[in-house]
TrEMBL record:
This is Basic blue protein. GO terms for molecular function: electron transfer activity; metal ion binding. GO terms for cellular component: plasma membrane. SUPFAM superfamilies: Cupredoxins (SSF49503).
């Protein structure tokens, strides 16, 4: 038994708050496979319809790395289908990327692929 009532209450309250916090944090993130069974492929833009993305959700990009890649770009890179030296590029064929708050933009930086529809914009709240 606790000899100091206030101390026991504070410890119990701390444990309760930590438990609630950890359950909220782990419950938030969802993993999505971009394009579903088709994977990271042309005309994937409509794949986001009906989905509500949150900060910390993970997008899995499955593709043939000998044909495609994934580049994280800004809105200008998305519109112009161009990556820059500051763009992060991935090429494993099984890339897992965590969403940040706001718009997240992804393109395939292989010449002609983004212009042919291999790009994706995802808004995370």
């Amino acid at each position: 038994m606790c000899r100091v009532q206030g101390r026991c209450s504070a410890i119990a309250a701390t444990i309760l708050v930590l438990t609630l916090f950890l359950s909220c944090v782990t419950a938030k993130a969802t993993t999505y496979v971009v394009g579903g069974s088709s994977g990271w492929s042309y005309n994937v833009q409509s794949w986001t319809k009906g989905k509500k993305f949150k900060v910390g959700d993970v997008l899995v990009f499955n593709y043939d790395p000998s044909l495609h890649n994934v580049a994280v770009v800004d809105s200008n890179g998305y519109k112009s289908c161009a990556s820059t030296s500051s763009s992060q590029a991935y090429s494993s064929g099984k890339d897992k990327l965590k969403l940040s708050k706001g718009q997240n933009y992804f393109i395939c930086s292989v010449p002609g692929h983004c212009d042919s529809g291999l790009k994706l914009a995802v808004n995370a709240s």
